[in-house]
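Human: For the file, kindly provide a plain-text protein record giving the amino acid sequence and the backbone structure tokens, at your earliest convenience.
Assistant:
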Amino acid sequence: MTDHPRIALFVEGSESPPARRGRQVLESLWNGGLGQALRLPAFDPVVPISKTHLVAMDPDNPPMSGAGERLDQLIARVLARKPFDIAVVAWDLVPAWNPAGEFCRWIETVDLYRFLAASDDLPEHWRDKARQRFEELSRRRVPGDRRRPPALEPGTVLPVCMEPVFEGILVQDERALRRALDLEGETVRGWPRRGWDDPQDRRPDLNLLTPAIQALRAHQPRRSVLRMIHGDMRTAKSEWAEYLLRKLLEDENARTLVLNHPLSRRFAELLVR
């Protein structure tokens, strides 16, 4: 393998029209935003997924609406079109359809390797690597009982469970978010007043960012960002995430919070060697 393995990122999100900088929004977010700030190797390709891709791999789960293609099938399809050496799979712990449910990052990680190892669609060396990881994780006495991150070898899948959801990285500081939206010091009708200091909030995208963006869109005078992003958190979720992340990384105080978030530390641990 070369000194620079090809790394694909399969990450929760959706395809969007290219940003003004000419790339898909998810690619701009992960390669030009967080990836650049953390000095991660470039992801190529960046492939949007939903948690239904993971749920569909479990044969014991009943069929779900929208859960047609399994994650292993998607990985195999992308491999055939644009080969890569390593896959990073990043998903939200709390799914949109059940924000009140109980979910375990460790169980989902072990299951990911178990289902990949049993795939009929992945190439053999990918299944072998998944089987090795599943067996290694299954032998641990406690989840954190490991000496080092997995080696960056061909066929490796690296899991990143974003807990509770990716948007948690954006809502660590209300004042920083207000600065990012050019609303600092203003009274904004409909702005969420509670929850900014609650790290246990399971859906900050719904409980904080959705009403915040809605309040911004109704506020006067109209902010310039609304000429770039025309939708709300339902119709333009990836665009808002990319924009807010970029503005927070430009903010000296907020940048420190973003780069020290558990999600950032996990990506750096896995990929910065």
In short: Strands lie at 7-12, 43-49, 86-92, 156-162. The chain has two domains: 7-166+263-271, 167-257.
